[in-house]
């Protein structure tokens, strides 16, 4: 009897596997054949620009929670012809690393600095938080603006919103059209009951228009009507899609009848959300073509973290996903296209970090980065054009305290070696789960090899210890729910405190002497000051 039950369960498991493969993985949407993509001779295919060539335009398009396996060129059945077009006409960055969730990836992108030094490595900025990335930090659009670029942003900010110094227009963007918060509803454009869509501080109401459509239309409007066409431009388009809330247009949902929506994983609606974002990307690419500027425009597309299975994201064959330091959470879909320079249909296996994009893109554009503080990002332009090494030369560290109280998930990547450490602070005990992988040989992180390589295991633990000490005690930690005394504003655009009403200096704590004593007593384990 037991044997019979075993075979029945085995048959059901196999049937489920076949169903998943049939419906979600065997009908790629792309019309392109990527099998012939070049991987070894990128440097020979890169084009040399004339010395007097104009500065390139730059567009960064950021998806939110897109899974590794949710694009056509990775085998998905979701229709992503425009993302696939970027991959066909550009370079697939197949070892691009973000962070496990939203705010730290965005902070790292904009500043080139490790988000732990910004106090935003463990958790995101929520509507009820007064913090943000420090006004002392230099943001990427400030570098481009200083070099004569027009700068614009359309979409999700998520890096502080209660004082003017934290808002996009104060961080180098001439034009901002979008929302401060995450999880904004696609139809009502609200978060926690407050309206959250604006243009440069002025409220904008779209009468229930789908948010992703607004993002696409406003990005095209910036390109067509707002920017000064005598100047190069830097445009940042961080989409909300396919982040929750899981909402999509009926006409897009109807394209995926073979997928199923369940309370656990709304696969059909999620596919429609990705589809809609791809359509918006297509509108932007079409506008570049219409203006005849596509060849001299660097387009970087990537996602802020891996897909979240509970909302429909798929990261196969990478392990796990959003909120975790496993490859499925931090190794993300990424493509760069620049027809004037980069060869089409190429696959780049060098390791890149989101932190590297500030120095890399400024080098590509031939401008100076205006950062004053030391940055953690590395100029990887040589690695983009096939002349640099696969390994960055510095480790990458991933941290997550979202969304489980007192559960910390850490990862350290250095060359092929990857440490995973899960620390669960229970009430009476603390449990630590540690694993070591060679992700160049084992990208699915299936075989723990810490016992075979104890020296690497210890070395990466030491790197993690030193890095975690950099998080200031005033940094952001998990706060998924607000204090019960908090109430959302009717409109988030109305509650920004003007710069002239904010003290220009950071509060120095309870006096210089007290701060110095505390720092001396606790050292790196109790970092008081931001650096």
Produce the secondary structure layout.
Elements: H1 2-25, H2 42-45, E1 57-63, H3 81-89, E2 91-97, H4 102-111, H5 140-146, E3 150-156, E4 175-179, E5 190-191, E6 194-195, E7 198-199, E8 202-203, H6 211-226, E9 233-238, H7 250-253, H8 267-290, E10 297-303, H9 327-330, E11 331-332, E12 334-337, E13 346-353, H10 357-365, H11 381-384, E14 396-400, E15 407-414, E16 417-425, E17 430-438, H12 454-468, H13 512-522
Parallel strand pairs: 1-9, 1-10, 2-13, 3-4, 3-9
Antiparallel strand pairs: 2-11, 2-12, 4-7, 5-6, 7-8, 10-12, 14-15, 15-16, 16-17
Helix pairs in contact: 6-8
Structure, explained:
The protein is of the alpha/beta class and 531 residues long. The chain has a single domain, classed as 3-Layer(aba) Sandwich (Alkaline Phosphatase, subunit A), CATH 3.40.720. The protein is built from 13 helices and 17 strands. The strands form three sheets. Strands 1, 2, 3, 4, 7, 8, 9, 10, 11, 12 and 13 form an eleven-stranded mixed sheet that branches. It has a four-stranded antiparallel sheet with strand order 14-15-16-17, covered by helices on one side. Helix 6 packs parallel to helix 8.
The string of secondary-structure elements, in order, is HHEHEHHEEEEEEHEHHEHEEEHHEEEEHH
Shape, principal axes of CA atoms? globular
Question: What is the CATH top level name?
Answer: Alpha Beta
Helicity, in percent?
Answer: 25-40%
Number of domains: 1
The CATH topology: Alkaline Phosphatase, subunit A
Low-confidence stretches: 5-28, 34-38
Count of separate DSSP helical elements: 13
CATH homologous superfamily assignment: Alkaline Phosphatase, subunit A
Strand content: 15-25%
Distance between the termini: 66 Å
Biggest beta sheet summary: 11 strands, mixed
Structural class by secondary-structure content: alpha/beta
* Average pLDDT level: 91
Strand tally is 17
Secondary-structure arrangement, i.e. CATH architecture: 3-Layer(aba) Sandwich
